[in-house]
Design goal:
The chain is α+β, with helices and mostly antiparallel strands and 89 residues long. The chain contains two helices and three strands; from the N terminus they run βααββ. Helix 1 packs antiparallel against helix 2. The model has no long low-confidence stretch (mean pLDDT 96).
Length: 89
């Protein structure tokens, strides 16, 4: 089930979209990068961790700012075209 629970500004949407695209790109890179290149592999792991943390912090911050409805075992998602936030549960 999906329910509209809010909306963010264009600037806020751009921030999470950048993090979303970065996280996806790093995940794709992780699929093809071997641990043979230890330095590059460590950088990837570090970048993935930092990006994941920033991604979660954005959701935590926005949910607090806008007081979005939540649900046990639910999660929020954003429509990048409309800046609308949905609760998926």
């Amino acid at each position: 089930m999906k329910k509209l629970v809010g909306q963010v500004t264009l600037e806020e949407k751009n921030e999470i979209q950048m993090l979303f695209e970065r996280r996806n790109g790093l995940n794709e890179l992780a699929k093809i990068l071997s641990a043979d290149n230890a330095e590059l592999y460590e950088k990837l792991v570090r970048d993935l961790g930092e990006t994941g943390t920033k991604f979660q912090q954005w959701w935590d911050s926005m949910s607090q700012k806008y007081n979005w409805e939540s649900a046990e075992n639910g999660n929020w998602e954003i429509n990048f075209e409309t800046c609308e936030i949905f609760l998926v549960y």
